[in-house]
Amino acid sequence: MSAVDAGEPAEADPRRHVSDYFRLERWELAGEDGGDRPTSVAGRTPVDPHQRGPGGGLRTGGLLTNLDSLGGFTSGLSVLPQWIVTTSLMATVSELAHIGPLRMRADVLRRGRNSVVTSLGVVDEGAGDRHVAAATMSCAVLDPGAMVLHFDRPFHQAMPEASPDPVRPDEFFCIEPGEGPVTRLRLEDRLRNPWGILHGGAVAMLADEAACRAAVAAAPAGFGPNGVAASDVVLHYLRPVKAGPVEARCEVLGRRAGRTTVRVAIHDVGSDDRVVTVGSVAVLAV
Amino acid sequence: MTFLGYPPAEHLLGDLGMAAEITSETTARVRTRATPQIASADGGVRAGVLATLVDVVGGAIAARVLRPDWMATADLALEVVGPVPGPWVEARGSLLRRGRTTLVVEALVVGVDEDGNDLVVDGRAPDPVAWASMTFAVLPTQDASSGGRPSPELPTRWAFSGGGLDLPVLEALPVTVLDGPAGRLSIPARPYLHNSFGAVQGGVVALLAEAAGAEALGAAQGRDASDMVVTDLQIAYLALAKVGPIVSSARVLATGTDGRAGAVVELHDAGAGHRLTTVVNVTAVPAEHFDPTVV
User: Fold this and answer.
1) Inter-chain touch A134–B264, beta carbons under 8 Å
2) Could you say which of B136, B167, B198 is where a domain stops?
3) CATH number at residue B158
4) Which of B87, B197, B222, B75 is nearest to B134 (CA)?
5) Structural Rg of chain A based on CA atoms
6) Under an 8 A CB cutoff, do A109 and B81 touch?
7) What's the total number of domains in chain B?
8) What does DSSP assign to residue A158?
9) CA-nearest residue of chain B to A275?
10) Most B CBs within 10 Å, among A85, A87, A89, A90, to test the B interface
11) What is the span of the domain harbouring residue B130?
12) What is the pLDDT of residues A143-201, one digit of tens each?
């Protein structure tokens, strides 16, 4: 289960750190029925230099974090007064070299009693609104309990200011340095979502980093001389991450024509090492 | 032989000759012969057929784990690793999680020999063919009346037998290309393609999306669809496709420098008010991209 980002003002909820790190602006689009159950929310992220990956654009884990935040928020708004947790995220990034900013749009496709399905599209405003990525996410509907979910409508959250002290994504997400098939993340409180569990975007960033390291470690010398980057990613959030540390264990399934397929299993080591997320990542030499 | 009376005598799954086996309470395997009728441009099995295979193996596991409840596929993702090295291709599925409302299954697809044994090529096991994952929505028994409620006695081994395919699988559906560059293709919702709900089977939906993506992505690159190899399918099943015809459309994403490109394919049930039934992210590359000298 991944993040919900309730969108509270930053000064009221320091747990908005993850979406603020990418300076994600969000605004609600008018619903078809004009009611208070919106089906579409837009977002924009500037792609700051320290967040770019070897592909030249926003690294895929960062893009997935933004999609998880935007799609989760959109899905949550659509089921108020209930809320959601992400259960699966399927994304394809067809262009890795973005100019930026990237503009995203989330549209609720199906809203059922137990689940919400949302589609997401990404265009590169700096490249003439070129379509660079698409994703579909599924969320489970849940009772928010005592959590207060109040938003001024129509919702708008301005783009946060740039940090005077930028840190790279792996450092921000507390991903420990290393190489090989196992990559570890320290679970610090600022990476938790309003439910107190690890933000789904952090899980995606860990999967990206771990799969890229595993692909490089398993490759012959000379593979990806300019680096590697994730493109197609599928993640099933099976259980919430509560304790940490979090470990991504990768299995390289095969490599063909510059593309490596990696199965990623993420474990919450402090919760009896249980499997929390399983997915696959396609890693490209760039 | 059928699984609880499914599929009918004349059915795509029978013509694909799939054979299934429950290997434990939470695992199963399903295989089909890799024939020219289901081959893609690189000589491997089409991604849409692989998706059909894993949908069947996932459904077999889900039916056993959930009994007496039933299920419907909510999403399916398939990533092709490489072409099939053997005469048969086999999906080996295992349960990842069983929740109150959903069930998640993963499947590894491998090549096997005539006896179902793992292949050995140059002294080692070849790379798998594909990895897949699926989410099933749990349908409590009282809601499952249209789905063919399973009996407590589920078979542990069965085979779908038919006359076999004597023409390419897309022609057997049949797929009609209405507007290739727009990814507008169509299939009828006929019993030959039905699932246990009387709607178009999830694997057939994958085949249509694969074909639509290849048409649109090929046209965007000035290529024929038959020159494109689909490597990834990410499918969200939103509603049953029951009336037909089922018509696709595609939006092409940016194309990478190596010709790798993506498209978002939508399927609508034209006979049901043009209802959106499925959204699929499709990734494809030109077949020439698979130069064996490239690592």
Assistant:
1) yes
2) B167
3) 3.10.129.10
4) B75
5) 18
6) no
7) 2
8) P
9) B96
10) A90
11) 1-167
12) 988 887 888 888 999 999 998 889 999 999 999 999 999 999 999 998 998 888 999 99
